Amino acid sequence: MSDNTKRQRTEPGQGPGPGNGTVVPPVPQGVTAMFEYGYRKPSYGPDELITDAHGNPVNVTDAMLQPHEAGLKETAVPHLCFYSPRIPGNTGSAIRLCAVTGSVLHLVEPLGFNLRDTKLRRAGLDYHDMAHVVIHPDFENLVSSMPGSRIISFTAQADGLYTEVEYRPTDILLFGPEPGNIPDPMDIMAGEHIYRQVRLPMRPSLRSLNLANCASIALYEAWRQLGFKGSSKA
User: Fold this and answer.
1) Fewer beta carbons under 10 A from the terminal one: N or C of the chain?
2) CA distance 95 to 80
3) The domain spanning residue 205 has which CATH number?
């Protein structure tokens, strides 16, 4: 790729957007180009708002639902839940995933990052206002706010495969923290409120898949079973 081609792709307003063939609009007045499809005001610190390609603030808190509201939210796919996620980029990717599938993302505290983290917003692009996110202070709050939902936990310790479940739109797909210093909270992942434990197959001796990748595989399998209801070509 020539330097000129690179320059055309990275300067807003001079080429196609991120993979969708659309033209990125000119940089709004008072902001500087940050990357191909988003901007940051130069006076903002690293933990301040990013705006999307149209100059609109990107803030995950704009998409927040109260726990009781999530229980009333009808979706065509199961809900997704991250228990104590540690890496903001994974949660940002999950926000984008939930936006494109029509799911709801539940985050159970404690979280390992600030919701205004720039890595979270960059990974979610400008999908934050198209997704629904719920914060729960603890796992019990999740359970009480979603009565009647089956909670299916994804853990490497499970015997059954994720493809063996017949998913329902009211299900909750539960994932534990990213591997690291915090082990899977088995009192949660295998607790009394869990309907079933399942795993994603991997080659032996390898530790894990990326959390956001696991969530994508699981949610799309559930959506496939449900006929991709709500998609553009369902």
Assistant:
1) N
2) 10
3) 3.40.1280.10
pTM of the model: 0.71
**Residue list for the binding site for S-adenosyl-L-methionine:** 176, 200, 208
Detail the DSSP E strand segments found in the chain. 32-35, 38-40, 50-52, 57-58, 64-65, 79-83, 104-108, 132-136, 151-154, 160-161, 172-175, 194-199
101: in domain: yes
Predicted confidence band of residue 144 (pLDDT cuts 50, 70, 90): very high
- What pLDDT digit, counting tens, does each position of 22-43 carry? 444 444 443 333 222 233 333 3
Question: Does residue 113 sit in the same domain as residue 164?
Answer: yes
Domain span at residue 175? 60-225
Q: Is residue 51 part of a domain?
A: yes
pLDDT: is 78 or 122 the higher one? 78
**Does residue 141 share a domain with residue 163?**
yes
Same domain as 120, residue 43: no
**Can you say which residues are annotated as belonging to the binding site?**
176, 200, 208
Distance of CA 186 to the CA centre of its chain: 22
What b/e string do you get for 93-102 counting C-beta neighbours within 10 Å, with b at 16 or more?
A: bbbbbbbebb
pLDDT in tens, 36-73: 223 333 333 444 444 444 455 445 455 577 888 888 88
